[in-house]
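Hi Y.,

Following your request, here is the sequence exactly as I used it, all 276 residues.
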Amino acid sequence: MSAVLAPAKSPLVGPKILLMGEGGNGKTHAIRTLCDAGIKPYVIALEPGYEVLGDVPPAKLGWRYIPRPAGDWAKLTEDAQRINTLTYASLSQLPDPNRGKYTRFVDILSALSKFKDDRTGEELGAVDTWGTGRAIVIDHLSELVRAGIELTVGGKPVMSQPEYMVTQNNIENLLRQLVTVTRCWVIVIAHLDRILDEVGGGTKIMLQSLGKALSPKLPQIFSDVILANREGKKFTWSTAASGVVLKTRNLPIEDGMPPSFGPIVERWKSRGGIIE
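Below is the corresponding structure, written out as tokens. Let me know if you'd prefer a different format.
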């Protein structure tokens, strides 16, 4: 009786990819191309919209939805009245007595350390135990930032500079941890912002995060930074657009590419990557 061979372990970890673009440019929809390429994505969905993936069978794609806390009209009215009557200094010093209910950032960390698929109920453990046959997808960065703000100040309408710094550090630490400790694929979806280029002058388009200090740091930790475009009904990816902070290790430097992770998977496999 022949022995059953264990699956080969990939000598290469999965790429870490930042996919950014304006809303409606097909970023979430493109996740399904990972399934076609043999990678099973698990999405941490931080806003409604993940339903565009609902036609993908649970055997090929999973998700965990972590919504914002339920809104409170009375609280919003109270905040508006304070904004109308108090100075910025006074507003920044007011604590939010309900800050403890804003746990979404903690919930995201918990999902990364003990992922449970909402679709099947399957518990998959920490993402740093996953192999290269899986991808963890953060959809999207803007809501991760919002969760970080809520963790720091709750529902307070303004932030002080020290609170900005605390929040920026938390977001950067989470993403660096996610990128550096995992063998699986990591996909972070982000929106765009125009940031002052303090080195070269002028402005550059890069991911939307929290303040001009954090946005330039984050692309450095990813292997690929890709721009999703749409012209009419045509969706494309670019790694060559001018005035945009982009980066590629697994795609050519090119405009007008198909919006698919498939070529990245094939390039990774050609270098020795194995789907575990």
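The chain is about 30% helix and 20% strand.

Thanks again,
Q.
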